[in-house]
Amino acid sequence: MIYRNVPNKFLIIIFFLFCLSNANAEIYKWIDENGKVVYGDKPISSDAEQIKIKKTPVLDPVVQQRNEKQNKLLGVMQEEREERSALRKEEKKKNDEHKKMCADARKALQKIKNARFLYEKTDDPNNPKIMTNEERKAEEIRFENQIKKNC
């Protein structure tokens, strides 16, 4: 009975040794006659070089948590940056509209000053009322005050 178990144990030991040798197999790289790069576990060519394969590092949970927190912070910072950029664009648009309004008001004032006559609308569209010099001066002053106040 003792002799019967010895060959089985011997076969099991040989099997595990064979598995260990394959698990620790080496990898080689060479260029074949067609110019293609070939990888294999046995060097076929004389110019084959052995490649060392690095094990993948195990991530430390503390480092992983730190990276997640850092990514969250970067995301929040990016959102804030985008919000500030949108606010700046909106403010610039308002400023541009305000500048255009002021420029239009100045042009209108200049037209009033250069016009020979100023007309006031009446019920009859074919017969508008011409402003007197005093009314004209009052209209110019009103426009100037609005420009000073708003621009």
Describe the structure.
With 151 residues, this protein is mainly alpha-helical. The protein is 62% helix and 11% strand. It has a domain at 1-53. It is built from three helices and five strands. A three-stranded antiparallel sheet has the order 2-1-3, with no helix packed on it. The chain has a two-stranded antiparallel ribbon with strand order 4-5. It is rod-shaped and about 130 Å long.
Q: What labels would you give this structure?
A:
151 residues, mainly alpha, 3-stranded antiparallel β-sheet, two-stranded antiparallel sheet, 5 strands
Quick overview:
This protein has 151 residues and is mainly alpha-helical. Helix content is 62%, strand content 11%.
What is the secondary structure topology, with strand pairs?
Layout: H1 2-23, E1 27-31, E2 37-40, E3 49-51, H2 61-114, E4 119-120, E5 129-130, H3 133-150
Antiparallel strand pairs: 1-2, 1-3, 4-5
Helix pairs in contact: 2-3
State the low-pLDDT regions, or none: none
State the total count of DSSP E strands: 5
Class of secondary structure makeup: mainly alpha
Return the string of H and E elements: HEEEHEEH
Helical residue percent band: 55-70%
Strand content: 5-15%
Radius of gyration: 45 Å
Q: What is the helix tally?
A: 3
Mean pLDDT: 83
Report strand order across the widest sheet: 2-1-3
Distance between the termini: 111 Å
Shape assignment: rod-shaped
Largest beta-sheet details:
3 strands, antiparallel
